[in-house]
Specification:
This protein has 226 residues and is an all-alpha fold. Helix content is 66%, strand content 0%. The chain has a domain at 170-226.
Length: 226
């Protein structure tokens, strides 16, 4: 099958069928960012939420100077929480550390847990220490998924000072929380991390014990902090 031309994809994005527009967005993955982004921007206000969601996500992958301000605006202003969550996720993929401030605002101020969850994940992806206080605060959130995201993100930050704060989840009721803890500790070379991982190796859930074993292998040969 021949690679669709830019002209063909531009026409397909004007189709009355949302399935055609979604297919065109998917095919834009193979088009250079400079050519793809102007077409993606044309469907950001599409009547179909699925099309809009794909377009927002695509802006995180197809990185040009236009993407950051557009995504930051969507994160703040879009009335649909799903689209705001998509924008938060896309900002993490974009890798632009200017996104830390809007993501922190979304984490603190957005009323929907999915947006806050996506913001926490992206703050971890950006690996910016400015997110540390917000992520530590998220550990006390009532939503378990927010706790999961915060633990994972603190691991991504590789901030050894966070170890004590996350160790209290070693006996968390939700096994996914314990798995995220094991994964995070694999990025945090301290004596306490190793001790906790040896404990988690004996966890009753296989995913937790496997993650702990893998994390311990990650730490082999790494100098430990006290």
């Amino acid at each position: 099958m021949n690679q669709p031309t830019l002209e063909h994809l531009a026409k397909q994005l004007q189709s009355s069928k949302s399935s055609d527009r979604m297919l065109a967005l998917a095919l834009l993955r193979d088009i250079p960012s400079g050519d793809a982004v102007p077409l993606i921007l044309q469907v950001l206000d599409d009547e179909s939420l699925q099309v809009r969601s794909m377009a927002v996500f695509a802006l995180g992958i197809k990185q040009t100077d236009e993407c950051y301000p557009v995504l930051a605006k969507i994160l703040v202003n879009d009335p649909d929480y799903g689209i705001r969550a998509d924008a938060a996720g896309a900002l993490g993929y974009l890798g632009d550390n200017r996104a830390v401030e809007p993501l922190l605002r979304a984490f603190y101020e957005d009323t929907d847990w999915l947006v806050r969850f996506s913001a926490a994940v992206s703050l971890g992806n950006l690996k910016d220490i400015r997110a540390r206080d917000a992520l530590l605060q998220a550990l006390d959130n009532d939503e378990v998924v927010i706790q999961q995201a915060a633990i994972a993100a603190l691991g991504e930050l590789r901030d050894l000072n966070a170890v004590d704060a996350i160790l209290r989840f070693a006996q968390a009721e939700d096994w996914l929380v314990r798995q995220r803890l094991a994964e995070a500790l694999g990025n945090l070379p301290t004596v306490k991390s190793v001790s906790a991982l040896k404990y988690l190796q004996k966890d009753s859930h296989p995913h937790v014990s496997q993650s702990a074993t893998f994390a311990l292998k990650q730490l082999e040969g790494v100098e430990m902090e006290g």
